[in-house]
Amino acid sequence: MEFNYSYPGNSSISSNGDRTNMSFAPDVTRTPTYFRGELRQNIAFREAISALHDVVVSDLRFQPKDKTAYKEWAAQRNEIDWQLIATQRQTVTDRLRELDAEMSELRRRSSERSSGYYKSVRRYFDYLYQKDRDAWFVLDPVITVHPDEVFFECFSQDESSYGRLGASYEVFKNVGDFACGTTNVDYSAALYDEFQKIRTYKSTVFEVDPSGFGVQTAGEVAYKEVKIDLPDTWVRGFLQVNSAMSLPAISFDLHPMDIYNLCFVLRRRKEKHGPRSMKYILKPGEPVRVIFEPWNLEVVCDRSFYHGNKPEEIRVWGRRRLLILERLIPVAKKFTVHLLGTGLPSFYVADLHDLSFTLGLSGWTANDWAKAGNFDLMAPRDTVDDWTKQKVFAGLQENWLESPDDLAKRLKLDRSVVLGALSAYTQAGRAIYDLNKQVYRVRELTQEPLPIDRLRFANDRESAASEFITNKVVKVDSSSVDTNGTLHLAGTIKYRSQTYKPIAEIDRDERLVAANCTCNWHQQNKLFKGPCEHILALRMQHQQALVRL
Fold this sequence. Notes:
Blueprint: E1 2-7, E2 12-15, E3 19-24, E4 35-39, H1 42-56, H2 68-86, H3 90-130, E5 142-145, E6 149-155, E7 161-168, E8 172-173, E9 181-184, H4 189-195, E10 203-208, E11 224-229, H5 232-244, E12 250-254, H6 256-268, E13 277-282, E14 287-292, E15 297-305, E16 312-317, E17 334-339, E18 346-352, E19 355-361, H7 368-372, H8 386-399, E20 401-402, H9 404-411, H10 415-427, E21 431-434, E22 439-442, H11 452-455, H12 460-470, E23 474-481, E24 487-495, E25 498-500, E26 503-506, E27 512-516, H13 520-525, H14 533-548
Parallel strand pairs: 3-10
Antiparallel strand pairs: 1-11, 2-3, 4-8, 4-10, 5-6, 5-9, 6-7, 7-19, 12-17, 13-14, 13-16, 14-15, 17-18, 18-19, 20-22, 21-22, 23-24, 24-25, 24-26, 26-27
Helix pairs in contact: 8-10, 9-10, 12-14
């Protein structure tokens, strides 16, 4: 999926002894969006924008070790041993030496011929990382100007972490003219280095440059055209995390020192085997407790109490992504945690007084949930006709942001209808749910509409599984957990005069370790090509039941 941007230049930061000017170059192909103001809370903004940068460059996917040098060494040792054994006969030894010399010469020539290529490749990637690190970024951050705040959004390279920085107008002083809307801004690695120079004794002017929307005249610098080809999974993951923010969640507050303690454990220890999860133990009126597996190390958050109605026990994975929050600890007032359930996405909202930072984490660092159909946040929504959906979205556009209850009351519509319409626009990338203020906001992720039919499912089996859920033909017959913590599911799917009997086993790391189904596809392929649509539907039905609970 290709995205095209046109910037009137590069974003830049100019600095002198007492003043810093930050000017972001917007995408001029989108609706004119601009803002100008002088920072009042310099340090908090510096730390928050730096944490956002950590999300942009985050990539915790497994990187295999380069064993090329070892294999070359092993090959040389084998040759040496071979020569030593061959010395038993002088004639053979002499012949081997001749062949060895000939092979060495051939390898030398081959190495000389290829060295230029490999050196150029190495220099190219070294240059990208050291000099032009922007080329490593997947997508420039999205900035949105609203009547009450300005907020940035970004998504990590490994498709598992989402970051949102919201800055209310109280963060600024001397706010000038602004135009509400959403645009991409030119973002470079050099900007990150300049952000670190923000100080309290220097006035800092923040600007989304409006001059780029003017008419270009002769002699001016041409616009910088940027084309980025993104995989569908990246865009789909971004939309899923956005949709997850509007789902019911278990919420509680953590003191900044509690977040520090969690990060401290992760810094001091490295797991060598699974399970690699954090288990939240929540009991009404008691301090929040967190157990780190596989060490079973318990951290008691004495400053943070759970005020829910019933006890909960929720496990989350991909915990090392929490280290992104480290920079925010000194300037944060509190952290609000939103957990959707075991193995489901989670959100951490840092209260930085007039700033808020939201870190959204998918259920798994490698984003297996989106790829394997374990949890589909773009599942079928309440049926709302197109005219009603357009009416709801037009109503939201009038004020740019509004709670579902207020919008339903103003438009004289049922709350479920409004939520269904807003959910559809969230999944289409045209709206977003603000966890901090509990409102929906207009936010056009792209200039052109996204191909939702293409992004909604990773494959045909997920589409078929979703159809089973929609038609309510999936029944979970049994659900049990054994002594090893493995979840055993068995179900029945009756569809078009056919009856299927899928079963699944899910381990403590929420991995599908065993499954079976009576359908022909599974009998032919087993799990070598992934689970069939009936096994996917069984798992989705079980998870939806957990969410409703």
